[in-house]
Design goal:
Helices cover about 35% and strands about 10% of the residues. With about 400 residues, it is of the alpha/beta class. The chain has one domain (about 40-375): TIM Barrel. This is DUF4015 domain-containing protein. InterPro entries: DUF4015, GH. It comes from Candidatus Desantisbacteria bacterium CG2_30_40_21.
């Protein structure tokens, strides 16, 4: 009966459509705009496999759709999108009053369209907010900035200034952005630069109160706690930290366990290229991605026991001194899998990711052996041509690149 009514309507409208074809296009446009987004797959935050996307790429729909297409073809199911970077500029038209007052808004990104596209591609959405390194806010409101002892704004060696991690007005500002982004439809807020400055004349920094390692740790962990409570159970919170913070106090307020007490997820940046020679007893960590991730993950999981916080590490998909390709990326993921971690994020500053390192869509459950994995260093070196070409690379270098014979690499 419904179909007969539709046919009758078409017959009645036909003469008008012949006279005015644009009515037909308008009708089609209306019909398609009323179609709801594709049904979303509930991506578990414990199973996130994501990539970092800059606000510039997200604002260019053609480039952004290329990232979405990569996710469609592979096991990727999440995106981390830069919303506020270290310059303090906010990439969408926020309604947060302070952002408007200080001129922080550069609305290059259509946030509603971004969220809708991610939903249509069934992706878990993470909004990245850089917190205490905020050049714009610090310059606009010196009372919220890290200052010199003479009261002037403090600058690091790169000419950047920081907001004061002890200042609760700074906390409120970033929380307001986080709550707004969750309201727009993001699943999670990822806070980055939850720490104190690391370069510059640190001894000249004045925070308006006594400052030491203990108070710094309290400030950063209290900020995460403040946001967790302020979010009211809406959306997840994750925090980026230096990889080395897993193992020791770096003097910048990043205590791995204290932050984990209040975060839902913690994301150490365990990029092998960022580890000193000799770290974990490895003379060249950059050439040994499997080993770096294996050891750092073991240490991280041990520290997270009882906190309720989950590990979701940032992995390296870029090259510095050592050339990184499918093998190196796969070995990092495999090291996580072997530790029971099936959630990770890939970082590439240019948003160019190695598709060959990723499993094709829907193949994960059926083909865990997709990732190149070494049974023994000797076996891996013989089997993998790219490792032979690279020379000292990944797991094969364990045999020859120990710093000390006393370092018991295989002890769990």
């Amino acid at each position: 009966m419904i179909h007969k009514k539709l046919i009758l309507i078409e017959i009645i409208l036909l003469p008008f459509l012949m006279l005015n074809p644009s009515m037909l296009h308008a009708e089609k446009s209306y019909m398609y705009s009323s179609i709801p987004p594709l049904s979303m797959t509930k991506v578990s935050p414990d199973e996130v496999k994501g990539i970092h996307i800059t606000s510039c790429v997200a604002s260019n729909l053609e480039l952004f759709k290329q990232s979405l297409a990569l996710a469609d073809r592979t096991e990727l199911n999440a995106v981390v999108i830069d919303i506020k970077e270290t310059d303090g500029v906010i990439a969408y038209r926020t309604a947060v009053p302070l952002a408007r007052e200080i001129g922080a808004i550069k609305p290059i990104m259509d946030i509603e369209k971004i969220v809708k596209l991610c939903d249509q591609h069934q992706l878990y959405k993470i909004a990245r907010i850089c917190v205490f390194k905020d050049n714009l806010l610090a310059q606009a409101i010196p009372d919220m900035a890290v200052c010199e002892k003479n009261g002037q704004i403090w600058y690091d060696f790169k000419g950047a200034c920081w907001t004061n991690p002890y200042c609760q007005d700074v906390w409120e500002y970033n929380l307001s952005l986080a709550k707004e982004l969750i309201a727009y439809g993001f699943n999670e807020i990822q806070f980055d630069y939850v720490r104190f400055p690391t370069n510059g004349r640190i001894s000249n920094c004045w925070y308006g109160k006594d400052h030491n390692n203990k108070t710094a740790i309290a400030a950063t962990s209290d900020f995460v706690k403040f946001c967790k409570q302020g979010m009211g159970g809406k959306g997840y919170i994750s925090v980026d930290v230096f990889g080395l913070s897993i193992d020791r106090d770096l003097g910048i307020g990043q205590d791995f366990m204290e932050i984990a007490r209040y975060a839902d997820f913690i994301s150490p940046m365990v990029y092998p290229s960022h580890y000193y020679r000799g770290e974990y007893g490895l003379i060249n960590p950059d050439a040994m991605p499997y080993d770096v991730i294996n050891i750092s993950t073991k240490n991280a999981l041990r520290k997270l026991e009882g906190t309720g916080c989950k590990l979701r590490s940032w992995l390296q998909d870029f090259s510095l001194k050592q050339q990184y390709g499918p093998v190196e990326v796969q070995l990092q993921i495999k090291a996580l899998l072997q530790r029971g971690c099936n959630s990770w994020l890939l970082w590439n500053p240019c948003c160019r990711y190695t598709e060959e390192a990723l499993m094709p869509d829907d193949e994960g459950a059926k083909n865990d052996s997709f990732y190149t994995t070494p049974s023994t260093p000797e076996e891996e070196l013989i089997r993998n041509e790219s490792l032979k070409i690279a020379g000292l690379s990944t797991v094969s270098s364990v045999m020859t690149e120990r710093c000390s014979r006393d370092y018991d690499y295989w002890v769990e």
